Amino acid sequence: MAKKRFWLSAAVTVDLVILTVRDSRLHALIVDRGVPPYQGQEALPGGFVKEETLLQAAERELQEETGLSGVTGHLEQLRAYGDPHRDPRGRVVTVAYLALIADPPTPVAGSDAAAAKWEPTEKLLEEPTQLAFDHHQILYDGLERAGDLLETTPLATSFCSAEFTIGELRRVYEAVWGQSLDPRNFYRKVKKTTGFVVETGQSTTRDGGRPAKLYTFGGVDRLQPPILRR
Amino acid sequence: MAKKRFWLSAAVTVDLVILTVRDSRLHALIVDRGVPPYQGQEALPGGFVKEETLLQAAERELQEETGLSGVTGHLEQLRAYGDPHRDPRGRVVTVAYLALIADPPTPVAGSDAAAAKWEPTEKLLEEPTQLAFDHHQILYDGLERAGDLLETTPLATSFCSAEFTIGELRRVYEAVWGQSLDPRNFYRKVKKTTGFVVETGQSTTRDGGRPAKLYTFGGVDRLQPPILRR
DNA sequence: CGAATAGTGTCTCTTAGACACTATGTC
DNA sequence: GACATAGTGTCTAAGAGACACTATTCG
Lengths: 230, 230
What we know:
The structure is a homodimer. By secondary structure, chain A is of the alpha+beta class. Chain A has helices spanning 54-66, 121-124, 135-152, 166-177, 183-192, and strands at 9-22, 25-32, 42-43, 46-48, 73-81, 92-101, 116-120, 197-204, 212-217. In chain A, strands 1, 2, 3, 4, 5, 6 and 7 form a seven-stranded mixed sheet that branches. A two-stranded antiparallel ribbon of chain A has the order 8-9. The first copy, chain A, is elongated and about 60 Å long. At the A-B interface, β1 and β5 of A face β1 and β5 of B.
């Protein structure tokens, strides 16, 4: 280690775009910043990376922010953001993660990062931006990724509870894509996609109308054929 | 800045997956490491980030490694890799970028990072891995991304010179996807995709056979309809 | 001429979307 | 009964792939 530390040193953080579907609308988890910079403003949850993997840091933050130990859902890296001036404290490179989780974790724990709350993404995207740092951009990228994921992967089920109806699954697609889908064509499309969903044999009337069969996730990791939006 | 630097500090690098198509085969730019760690082994080109954007760092490295000032092509972020033990020197988070460039920049300058050379990606993916760090994984991810990009974006043209034939474009797809395509169906598919290519009015016989019309990139940023592989 | 690539036509099969219709629950 | 959602059937138009065929160059 002769020339030790001649290179640039930076702080590394993870920021989270945590999405869920509530009342047929897409929501993101937002925190009120309790400390400078951007004190009092809204931001995405996140924090500094410790002696751990980036993914582990994201998992840790996710559990801290949602206040749950066994969060069910999906977590994947979005991308890194490293503009030299994105943080007034100095050089901070952040690695953003995208989390898709089922509604139940509604009660958000306060944690150290002040109050957290679910906000409709539609509202958050309105200009002018109220989010701290470059979090508006990160949120935008996360929403775009989420929309793409629903086309080719079965991750829409990450927004659902363990057992769900086709109608509930459809409302996930409608919320994320921001468009309505024909229930009948959607129904057949899902059932034709091998391994997407599996019948449990039970049914429910929680959505009103005729009882709907309940399904669980079928286990594939790619939708074949994909479910494409227009 | 009361509690200044209580957080983890890390070095930040960029690594590049630079792809091109030569002789109808996909190649990646590989350097021989002249310094430890992994001295003498093969690796992806890359370097430490300075007082600049991550993208700017990637552009700088790209130009240094290819020895060209105005590299034509495409450059986008792949993702970040931050395992605590990925670099024996300490905590180094790297942000990988994917570059797609046209063949002409064949003469690779030595630069400071020892010799650089084009290697067929097929050969590089063979086990056991000979690439330093986690560059095998990064290369794999880059190739996967490249394949996806060709489906929905016009970036195959980044592999071509300013003017190209449909046949040359097809050989790009075949090289990246590793599968042969029906020339006739491909031809109509490309021409049906609005804004993908534009006729120049000229033609060439450089591919042998009947003279082929020459095209330039049409300017769209999404292929509609997309060009999907089976 | 044959060989090679460019470009067109056409057939078949699959799929996406529109939408009529039936089924089964709650009020 | 009205109303809501679940689930099925069917028609039509567009797209994908297979492949015969024509066009134009070179040697």
